[in-house]
Amino acid sequence: MKLFTKLALVSAVAVSSNAMAMQAMDDAALSSTTGQDGISIGIGISRVEIDKLHVFDGDGLAGGYNTVTVNSGVVTSTPTTAAAGAITINDVVVGAPMTAKMIPDPNDATKQIEDPSGAKTLDVTRTISATDHNLANLVIDTDGGNGSPFLNVAATVSGLDISLGKIEVNDVTSSSKAGAYVAGTGSAEILSGLSLKTGRMTANIQLGNTPQGAMIKLDGSMIGGLEINDLALKDASAGGGGYITIGGIKLKDTGTSDLALNADVAVTKEGLAVTAMKNAAGTDIYITKVVLGGGTIASGDTPFQGTGAGSASIGDVAISGMKVWNGAAGLAAIPGAANGAVITIAGH
């Protein structure tokens, strides 16, 4: 019996030792063991609303301008001193991707129709995944870079529904010398507003050194392409008052239903440089319901609800297989693969 007792004791010690070794590890210990140190951040926001967004130009139109007036057929041009102004975007809404709610067709049980009440439901085809409905997920790492260290942020962003209200220009009533600019009450409408639908996208951001070749690289595909709807440009001049309206703009890659996000963003000495539209197959653009004028618009109606002369659409416009080159690549007798357009943004 003593032998069996000793064997039992040894077995118990062995089991307890192994049990201790197999205890669950916390995230920090697991990361150190597997070599997956770093920071992961999930941003859970389903809706953001901004009443007004102002972008101020502190010195206005450099050098001033001439104000032209017509009185009894006499045209007068008066030199006018430049003054600070602002671009104002009203009623900005950024929300989770939504789609029409489908319900059984009361006339055919085998079919579904859009809910006539206009109800919406989450569009999981545009979220990060079917189960992950975060606005964005960030994975942050630092790398020694063999002597050229950098910070790497890998971002996955959900598709979004974006709505912009009226876009206008305003005068400015307060100087920055007083602490801050304040938009005045004088305004003129530029755009009646627009809405955008984006698909899921990924981006990689590198700060410090940038072995990927640019500070920000957009990759992957915008599922379903990019949609811009209800765009209306207003002529607010005394001789105008009408609109150029576009019911919708759809962008996608030629031969697919998605839009590749092959773009680079770099901060150069000359400004922010964005290189985009690098798809070798080209881009398809479809523009619907183009209206020039807008017709007679009743109070409270949008430029898309005008009546009478000028309210009819001139038709749709389609552009297929558009390719873009920049620099020497586009000057060759036989250009190579399209390398995209470079857009540089800077102050002046």
From TrEMBL:
InterPro entries: DUF6160. Residues 1-74 form the DUF6160 domain. Keywords: Signal. It comes from the Bacteria. Residues 1-21 form the signal peptide. This is Pilus assembly protein FilA.
